[in-house]
Specification:
With about 250 residues, the chain is α+β, with helices and mostly antiparallel strands. Helices cover about 50% and strands about 10% of the residues. It folds into two domains: about 5-175, Transcription factor LuxR-like, autoinducer-binding domain (Beta-Lactamase); about 190-240, Winged helix-like DNA-binding domain superfamily/Winged helix DNA-binding domain (Arc Repressor Mutant, subunit A). A hairpin with an 8-residue loop joins strand 4 and strand 5. The two termini are about 30 Å apart.
Length: about 250
């Protein structure tokens, strides 16, 4: 796929799934056959927020996802730490340098050993620019098995700038698309009710607009709060907006 064709398809993608398929195929052209993208809007000085609120996209095999994400290995991953503290692109060569200098903790070493066992050994990480201290997005590009870091670095010297630009575009596009995660998808009625709350309407107003009883509107709002795991309707409106599940034609 040529870059122009890729960018046209990517920017016209109507869903996260469509975008991710296009992006994974393009990165594979450069030898990166496994990708792991993450984004949070709830970062603090001591936490990345609730993992259930992360936007996570990956084509790694299930065994890798279960351990790295499910068991929380990412929390101790050296390249995740790098991404949180930096912006731009970084070769995984830095891991060998850290190991050789002894500048690595035992928990970080365990993550590196696990990655080696899963043939996650060569690649690059890209940390995207943030406009808020609460947000952070990054992507790990894993080279296909058999590729050395030397060969990946040589390819990056020629194509790295284009790869960074393409990932920046993919990241910005992801932020515009509806995302529900495994258990956070609102129903059409729940979205509609939150939509009207966001427009400043009262429960009685919403009941009239939706052709429902006030009690049914309250039920939709309660279920929306439960789905989004928040305490107040105002929080539900904010989180639904963050997830691009409001004011959309078809989430």
């Amino acid at each position: 796929m040529m870059r122009r064709e890729y960018l046209e398809k990517l920017t016209n993608a109507q869903s996260i799934e469509e975008l991710w398929t296009i992006h994974c195929a393009k990165m594979a052209d450069y030898g990166f056959d496994r990708l792991l993208y993450g984004f949070t809007r709830y970062r603090t000085a001591t936490s990345l927020g609730d993992p259930e609120d992360f936007v996570i996209l990956t084509n790694h095999q299930q065994e890798y996802r279960d351990a790295f994400l499910g068991k929380g290995l990412y929390f101790h991953a050296p390249m995740v730490k790098w991404a949180l503290e930096n912006e731009g692109a970084c070769s995984w060569r830095i891991l060998a340098e850290m190991t050789a200098s002894g500048a690595i903790t035992e928990s970080e070493r365990r993550v590196i050993d696990f990655n080696r066992s899963m043939n996650v050994t060569a690649g690059y990480s890209i940390s995207f620019k943030s406009i808020s201290p609460r947000t952070k997005g990054a992507i790990a590009l894993t080279a296909r098995p058999g590729l050395s870091q030397d060969s990946v670095d040589a390819m990056w010297a020629e194509n790295g700038r284009d790869i960074v630009i393409m990932n920046n575009v993919a990241h910005l596009k992801i932020l515009t698309l509806p995302y529900s995660g495994p258990t956070r998808e609102l129903t059409r009625r729940q979205r509609e009710a939150l939509h009207w709350v966001g427009d400043g309407k009262t429960t009685q107003d919403i009941a009239l607009l939706m052709g429902l009883t006030a009690a049914t509107v309250e039920k939709h709002l309660r279920l929306a709060r439960e789905t989004l795991n928040v305490e107040t309707t105002a929080q539900a409106v904010l989180k639904a907006a963050f997830l691009n599940q409001m004011y959309v034609l078809d989430a």
